[in-house]
Give the backbone structure.
Amino acid sequence: AGGVARHVKAAGATVSFSTVLGEDELKTFALRELDTSGVDCRPIVDRTRPTTRKERFITDGYKMLQVDRVDNRPISERITRILCDALRDTPADIVVCSDFRHGIFNRQTISRFTRDIPATALKVADSQVSNRWGNILDFTDFDLLTPNEREARFALADQDSVVRPLASELFRQARCRNLILKLGERGIIGYRSPGPNPREFFTIESFVTKLVDPIGAGDALLAYASLALATTRSIVIASILGSFAAAIACERQGNVPVTPAETEERIDSLERLARYG
């Protein structure tokens, strides 16, 4: 979630980031990195758990091994109330719930958090199942969801359907206003509501030219798509900008925040290519 916050800040937004950290050296490191990035972090320290740490070993763009140091116990009632108060009392144009299922988000807390999101804020959510039990369908009636194909299949218990009906069914069950289903090297498929056709959708191919490290691509897409949707109210524009940001993130090592200048340069380069071949 800290990665998403850094991408949003790098894109030019003001960010208030709430999370739970342990009382350890990694907490100090995380807070220092967030402060350097300009993120206003409002940590809640839980001395009974470690700060989440993930180590990934990558070869030729593929994750070969991941070693995690985590505590997936649900957060306490005290911490839940603190987070609810922060949601209710912090003015926001966008609220992003980045769900890694390390204790903060579960079926009980998600409904409480959702009730306390300001009514005028754009509600956005992402949920991980690559090595956790997150379910994107726990986030219903949101303005934007950005799961990947594996997360969609997990949520729907469907390993057989092709992508378009899969996305359509997820869109229907989640009752979201906009959906970006991430398809890796195949790009994305998007659904939007309301529309003249309940199966209204669009696709965008990947803009990646040379894959180096896909870690951070989802964070970059989530950040830029959320900001673009809040600004333009167009899910097509949001999906395009998010896809550009994701491509840039894929072409370098590590989860390094993508800047607007980099995104503009990528757009300009494709426009030049389209004009002159």
Observations:
- The beta strands are 16-21, 40-45, 53-59, 62-69, 94-99, 122-127, 144-145, 178-182, 188-192, 201-204.
